[in-house]
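A reminder from the course coordinator: this example appears on the midterm review sheet, so study it carefully.

Given structure:
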């Protein structure tokens, strides 16, 4: 159980560190395929994050 908590904490920490960079890269890389720029919304959807913790 402690491993699960550790993994969750590390995942949240990793998400916080890479959130700004990945959103920026995703918008630049997938701007042509998704002109509305919603790729970052799909990747970092709050409902999807809550689903992972359930």
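Designed residues:
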């Amino acid at each position: 159980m402690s491993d699960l908590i550790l993994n969750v904490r590390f995942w949240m920490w990793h998400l916080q560190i890479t959130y700004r960079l990945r959103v920026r890269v995703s918008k630049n890389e997938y701007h042509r395929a998704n002109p509305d720029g919603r790729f970052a919304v799909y990747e970092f959807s709050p409902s999807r994050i809550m689903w992972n913790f359930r």
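The chain has a mean pLDDT of 54. The longest helix spans residues 2-29.
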